[in-house]
Design brief:
Layout: E1 3-7, H1 18-27, E2 32-38, H2 44-48, E3 56-67, E4 74-81, H3 88-114, H4 121-125, H5 135-144, H6 151-154, E5 171-172, H7 173-182, E6 186-189, E7 193-194, E8 199-200, H8 203-211, E9 216-220, H9 226-239, E10 242-245, H10 265-274, E11 281-282
Parallel strand pairs: 1-2, 2-3, 3-5, 6-9, 9-10
Antiparallel strand pairs: 3-4, 3-11, 4-6, 7-8
Length: 287
């Protein structure tokens, strides 16, 4: 089985609509794909209605978390799988983060305009396709304007990676782990050693998350070197955490392709048997 447990659609900052993403997954030879858009379940229904034969869809989301027990606080991402989308407290937290994302985007555009960079918020919203607005949408708007040559350049220090990088509201990570569990879901720490993003998490923090009920940790990821992955696996073994792997696919916003990194079948089976919130969606058997 080929299992990719971290992908994004136009419901957040990917470039493939949820149904298109599933067709791409089937074409890439995947057996299981998780849809994990940022802080939203908006793509779930469209994806569920279009599961190709032979493919299984795992419902998920990538939550914006923050460790507030250090100074400065530390941002991180949690992958939440198969949780009940009707859980009121978790739904409210996700809505709060999405509002913050929108307010941050408006503030970034205001700062750009104040510096003489002409960009309208309507241009950014036109790229969102009804999902959650994020910095990649602003990046693509800058590319469309001809102000930068690529999305990668837009995330450089002169633009969204530095001068125009503004914070957003995140969910307290211990609260997030608790709410995911209460909603019947499974929590996995995403790309903890992503040094290229400046997001290397201290081992001591991960130890605390494991003690709070974290289920797993993402080791095989495009932003992890082989040494990063080996370190993450060793830490997971010491802490009794499951190890996942995935592409973190964003369509044309990144060069990585579906299935570039995958999760072992026994870990996937453990995930499904542990979750109680909502089952995966299965396509018809292949003829």
């Amino acid at each position: 089985m080929r299992i990719d447990l971290h992908t994004h659609s136009t419901a957040s900052d990917g470039t493939d609509a949820p149904d298109v993403l599933l067709r791409e997954a089937a074409g890439a030879g995947l057996d299981v794909i998780a849809l994990t858009d940022h802080d939203t379940t908006a793509g779930w229904n469209r994806a569920a209605s279009a599961v190709p034969p032979g493919l299984t869809l795992v419902f998920g989301a990538e939550l914006s978390g923050r460790w507030y027990r250090s100074e400065p606080s530390i941002g991180l991402h949690l992958l939440a799988y198969l949780f009940d989308p009707g859980h009121e407290e978790l739904t409210a937290e996700l809505a709060r983060v999405r509002r913050s994302r929108d307010m941050r985007a408006e503030a970034i555009v205001d700062h750009l305009n104040a510096d003489g960079v002409t960009l309208a918020m309507d241009e950014v919203r036109g790229l969102v396709a009804g999902g959650t607005v994020g910095r990649p949408h602003i990046a693509r708007a800058l590319v469309a304007r001809g102000l930068v040559g690529s999305v990668d350049e837009a995330f450089g220090p002169e633009w969204l990676g530095g001068r125009y990088r503004l914070p957003k509201t995140d969910i307290d990570v211990l609260t997030a782990i608790r709410l995911i569990g209460e909603a019947g879901g499974v929590s996995v720490l995403a790309h903890p050693m992503a040094g290229s993003r400046g997001h290397v998490l201290p081992d001591a923090l991960i130890v605390s998350l494991a003690g709070a009920g974290l289920w797993g940790i993402e080791a095989d990821h495009p932003d992890h070197s082989p040494e990063d992955a080996a370190h993450t696996r060793a830490l997971a073994r010491d802490l009794g955490l499951r190890v996942t792997g995935s592409s973190d696919y964003h369509g044309d916003n990144k060069t990585v392709r579906l299935g570039a990194y995958t999760t072992a079948p026994d870990v996937y089976e453990d995930l499904v048997s542990t979750a109680t919130g909502i089952p995966p969606a299965h396509g018809a058997p292949k003829p």
